[in-house]
Structures are given as structure tokens and as C-alpha cells.
Specification:
This protein is of the alpha/beta class. It has a single domain (about 5-195, about 235-260, about 285-300), classed as Rossmann fold. The chain has helices at about 10-25, 65-70, 90-110, 160-175, 205-215, 220-230, 235-250, 265-275, 290-295, 305-310, 320, and strands at about 5, 25-30, 55, 75-80, 115-120, 185-190, 190-195, 230-235, 255-260, 265. The strands form 2 sheets. It has a 7-stranded parallel β-sheet, with helices on both faces. β5 (about 115-120), α4 and β6 form a beta-alpha-beta unit. The longest helix is centred in the N-terminal third of the chain and has 20 residues, at about 90-110. It starts with a strand and ends with a helix. About 50% of the residues are buried.
């Protein structure tokens, strides 16, 4: 029975990844920054095959805890970077844990015996820091794919920039270490939506869905989305988990970064669909998942099914609402 370590395995996306690996009869180690706070991970203990689950303490700023967590893992999934929209100090709240944390992690795992695969759950921001907007100098109707050069604008949201620079660190590490004994694969989902596996109130993804559904704009970023009726490319959280699993078990994928995306809808249409109504506009496609469909054999859940599956079981999170 192989062992997978999932950093951030109790969050919105991470919980679905944990669920997937448990269902596939893996031993699963999930990290927790505060192992005494069972409310953060207690929902995982009710999953199928939870007898194969262990919770381990981990702080990416502390090298020894990273080593202890990684020891004995055949696969490590890194999804433990903060998704935060309201930021007072980008350097300490986003750039240090996201970028420096990624660099620390890479330096540690390069020396872990028996490690076969490292999967990073990045973000569409690794390809376009202006998401959900397209870069101003791109042609109208441009469809992003892995053939595009990643786009960065220093005026974009700090969260997107942090994800971009973390991904750049992964690319640089991969390029400079051609003799690694394990593969590194990255998945970059667009706006992740769907049903949470927990009742936690600190999920920005769940908070975003609530705010769009109820048309509440508690900060300037959400106000901008409503004012421009921004077009969001969506992907189901269950598809992200499936893509991570496929990237983990398939071989010869080293160095690839897969966009995970499905249909795009305007915010106004997403709000309608979250309220059980039909969208006014037709779906568009602004990001291509052709490579993920080919290499990972993905068959994406429709945006309509994703939004229908969403369960509004929480108030907007503090990260989303400020």
C-alpha cells in the first residue's frame, strides 16, 4: 500500500484530494499547522477508509517538520498555500508562505529516499496573474493553453503574483535539477467551485461562491467582479482531485504544468446558476484543458452540474469577506 502525503489536505481542495486517495486504498498523511485543533481536519475522519489516514504536524517554515512529514511518502501533494483576497501585508501573509515555503519544501524533498512523485496544486495565476481578466495586450477571444508564456503584471492581485512566483520557483528548480529521482508535476486550476466536504468557515473558495450567489461585495476585488461582470473560467473541485490523482499515478509527466478548466461564464450568470436559474449568456471557453484531457484522461464535469452541486452550508469566509 503506497503512502501519499497531502500538505493542506484538510482544506476545500485538499479534502477532496484526501478523499480520492483514501478511496483508492492509499495510506494518507495529512498535514496540520495545529494538530490540537481537530475542527480543522475532523471531517476527514468520517471518510471512507479513514483507518488509513494519519494527521501530522507541519509548518513549511520549519525544515525539520517538513522532513518528518515527507519521510516514508511515495507521493507528496502540495496544496498548502493560502488563498487570501484581503491582504494587509502581502510579504508576510502571501509571498513568504507561498514562495519561500515552496522553495523550502523543494530543498527538503530532493533528499527524501523512496519519493516517486511530487504534485503541486498551483493556480491559473501561474499562467496569468490578471485572472479572471485577460492581459490587456492579448487578442480578444484568445484561449490560454500550456503553449502560452506565463504572464505576470506587478499591478495584479498579490495572491495571483504569489502563486506565479511560486510556480516560477518550481520551474527553475526542475530545470536546474535534471537528475532528480522523482517526477514533479503541477496542476493549475482556474476558479475552483463545488461542494465542500466540511462545515469550515475559512474557505475562500466557498466564501466566493456564497458572495456571488448572494451578490454581496464586501471588498474592492469582489466589487470589481460585479462592476465588470467578469467572465470566470470554472472547474469542479472533484475534477481537481481527479487530475491530481491521475498525475500521481501516471508516469513520464515530469516538468509538466496542466491547466484545469471548463466553461467560462459571466459573474451574473454564475449567480443565476447558483440560485437554480438558467444563465442568460452561452458558455465560452477561455482556457484550454486539451493537454489534461490527453495526458490525464480527464472528462470534466459541466459547470452547470458543478454549480448545482454546490451546497451553501456556510457564511462567507473571513478570507473572502474581510
Amino acid at each position: 500500500m503506497n503512502t501519499v502525503g497531502i500538505i493542506g489536505g484538510s482544506g476545500f481542495i485538499g479534502s477532496h484530494i484526501t478523499k480520492k486517495f483514501l478511496e483508492k486504498n492509499f495510506k494518507v498523511k495529512v498535514s496540520s499547522t495545529d494538530i490540537s485543533n481537530k475542527s480543522k481536519y475532523g471531517h476527514l475522519l468520517d471518510l471512507e477508509n479513514a483507518r488509513n489516514l494519519k494527521i501530522f504536524p507541519l509548518d513549511l517554515r520549519e525544515i525539520e517538520t517538513v522532513k518528518a512529514f515527507a519521510e516514508g511518502c511515495d507521493i507528496i501533494v502540495h496544496t498548502g498555500t493560502p488563498f487570501q483576497l484581503d491582504v494587509q501585508d502581502p510579504q508576510t501573509e502571501l509571498f513568504e508562505p507561498t514562495v519561500k515555503g515552496t522553495e523550502n519544501f523543494l530543498e527538503v524533498v530532493r533528499n527524501i529516499a523512496g519519493l516517486e512523485k511530487v504534485i503541486f496544486v498551483a493556480s491559473v495565476a501561474a499562467w496569468n496573474t490578471s485572472f479572471p481578466m485577460s492581459p490587456a495586450d492579448y487578442d480578444s477571444g484568445h484561449i490560454f493553453s500550456e503553449k502560452d508564456t506565463p504572464y505576470h503584471n506587478e499591478n495584479d492581485h498579490p495572491y495571483c503574483q504569489a502563486k506565479y512566483f511560486a510556480d516560477q520557483s518550481v520551474r527553475k528548480f526542475t530545470d536546474e535539477n535534471g537528475d532528480l529521482p522523482f517526477e514533479i508535476v503541477t496542476v493549475s486550476p482556474v476558479m475552483v467551485m463545488g461542494k465542500a466536504l466540511s462545515d469550515r468557515l475559512d474557505s475562500t473558495s466557498q466564501g466566493m461562491q456564497h458572495l456571488i450567489k448572494t451578490k454581496i461585495a464586501p471588498n474592492s476585488f469582489i466589487e470589481m467582479l460585479f462592476a465588470t461582470d467578469a467572465e470566470f473560467s470554472l472547474v469542479d473541485v472533484r475534477d481537481v482531485a481527479e487530475a491530481v490523482f491521475q498525475a500521481a499515478v501516471k508516469t513520464n509527466l515530469h516538468g509538466k504544468n496542466y491547466l484545469l478548466a471548463n466553461e467560462s461564464y459571466k459573474v451574473s450568470d454564475i449567480s443565476l446558476m447558483l440560485n437554480g436559474q438558467a444563465p442568460i449568456s452561452e458558455a465560452a471557453f477561455t482556457y484550454s484543458s486539451a493537454l489534461a484531457k490527453k495526458d490525464l484522461e480527464m472528462n470534466f464535469i459541466s459547470a452547470a452540474d458543478t454549480l448545482e452541486n454546490y451546497s451553501d452550508n456556510a457564511e462567507p469566509s473571513s478570507a473572502a469577506s474581510g
